[in-house]
Design goal:
There is one protein chain. This protein is of the alpha/beta class. It has a single domain, classed as 2-enoyl-CoA Hydratase, Chain A, domain 1 (Alpha-Beta Complex). The chain contains twelve helices and nine strands. The strands form two sheets. The chain has a six-stranded mixed beta sheet with strand order 1-2-3-4-5-7, with helices on both faces. Helix 3 links the parallel strand 3 and strand 4. Helix 2 crosses helix 3, helix 3 runs parallel beside helix 5 and helix 10 packs antiparallel against helix 11. The radius of gyration is 19 Å and the shape is globular. The chain starts with a strand and ends in a 5-residue tail after the last helix. About 40% of the residues are buried. Bound molecules: ligand LP2KCY5N. Ligand LP2KCY5N binds next to helix 4 and strand 6.
């Protein structure tokens, strides 16, 4: 049975999915405590929803939905995204996450009506900090995540794709960091993450030319991990693809994500300590003991 979490239950708390193993996450997310002011302003821009369905198989689907505006993020959707990330942080049985847009397109970034109304630099920076915190927490979930890109992923929508571990694209879909055309640069953490995904040369090209990236070019530079064809259902295929990484017992899948995350984000000496701690959670645990009893051979 699927558990559906829809709508605007809100929390002002910042969460750290990796607990004590993760000193840097605390530092990055701690600013969220002072975010009440921007949260109040975001509430003034309603519309759309961010919906979460958690399935018993351990895979959740997060849907960005504002079809009249090509799934642009209204203010309340930004708040809902934060709430749904909090839900996922508390989901101990979770292993995988698909992030997608409603109605055949991914997301066209911030709702330009909200952007126009809060176009002063002070509010802009607060909004960007709010989204940075949420997307950092999304990327740090102990779940293996994939963005299913159909249609367009523009501006903040392109940034959202980089807050997932993987990206799959449908033929004809495009990712475009349109920020330069708007006289901007990414502010939701998308530039920092893009550099880590495609390298600084490719990131510079994509940002400085606001280049449209189709599915084949995205695969060539490592931005996309594969193409999903519309036949057979894009979500079904994406979930099947994800299952090959997020299959197996939750404690082991979550431990895999955590060691990769610590290796990616921490200095080597801290990453080694974190890896030992994570290793300690699976060594001698039921799955490990069962594998030993089976005398597994990996031919
Ligand atoms: C860059 C900074 C970043 C941030 O940090 O905040 C942002 O994300 S800013 C937003 C960046 N995104 C855009 O600028 C998108 C602008 N829109 C488009 O380029 C096009 O609408 C589209 C997304 C390519 C779709 O084109 P098309 O298929 O031809 O449909 P329409 O243009 O008719 O769009 C349908 C409808 O949706 C409205 N729309 C689309 N995107 C947004 C948006 N981001 N905010 C608000 N509204 C949006 C569009 O205006 C149409 O509505 P109507 O005009 O009422 O018909």
């Amino acid at each position: 049975m699927a558990l559906r979490c829809v709508g605007p239950r809100r929390s002002l708390l910042s969460h750290n999915a990796l607990g004590g193993l993760w000193p840097r996450a605390k530092a990055v997310c701690s600013g969220a405590a002072g975010s009440e002011e921007i949260e109040k302003k975001l509430l003034a821009f309603p519309g759309g929803s961010v919906d979460l369905v958690k399935k018993e198989c351990g895979i959740a689907v997060l849907t960005i939905s504002n079809p009249e505006r090509m799934n642009a993020f209204s203010g309340t959707m930004m708040l809902q995204l934060q709430e749904q990330v909090t839900q996922l942080e508390g989901w101990r049985e979770g292993k995988g996450l698909v992030v997608r847009g409603a109605a055949g397109t991914f997301c066209s970034g911030s709702d330009l009506n909200a952007v126009r109304a809060i176009s002063n630099p002070e509010d802009g920076v607060k909004m960007c900090k709010f989204m940075q915190d949420t997307l950092t927490r999304l990327l740090r979930l102990p779940l293996i995540s994939v963005a299913l890109v159909e249609g367009r992923a523009l501006g903040g929508g392109a940034e959202l794709t980089t807050a997932c571990d993987f990206r799959l694209m449908t033929p004809g879909s495009e990712i475009q960091f349109v920020h330069k055309h708007m006289g901007l640069v990414p502010g939701w953490g998308g530039a920092a993450r893009l550099v880590r995904i495609v390298g600084s040369q490719n990131a510079l090209k994509l940002l400085s030319a606001a280049q449209k990236v189709n599915s084949s070019y995205a695969e060539q530079i490592g931005l996309s991990d594969g193409v999903v064809s519309p036949e057979g259902g894009t979500l079904v295929q994406t979930e099947r693809w994800l299952s090959s990484f997020a299959g197996g017992p939750a404690p082991v899948v979550r431990a895999v994500k955590k060691v990769v995350l610590s290796g990616r984000e921490l200095p080597l000496s801290d990453a080694l300590v974190a890896e030992r701690d994570i290793f300690g959670t699976v060594w001698g645990a039921p799955t490990n003991l069962e594998a030993l009893a089976r005398k597994s051979k990996h031919k």
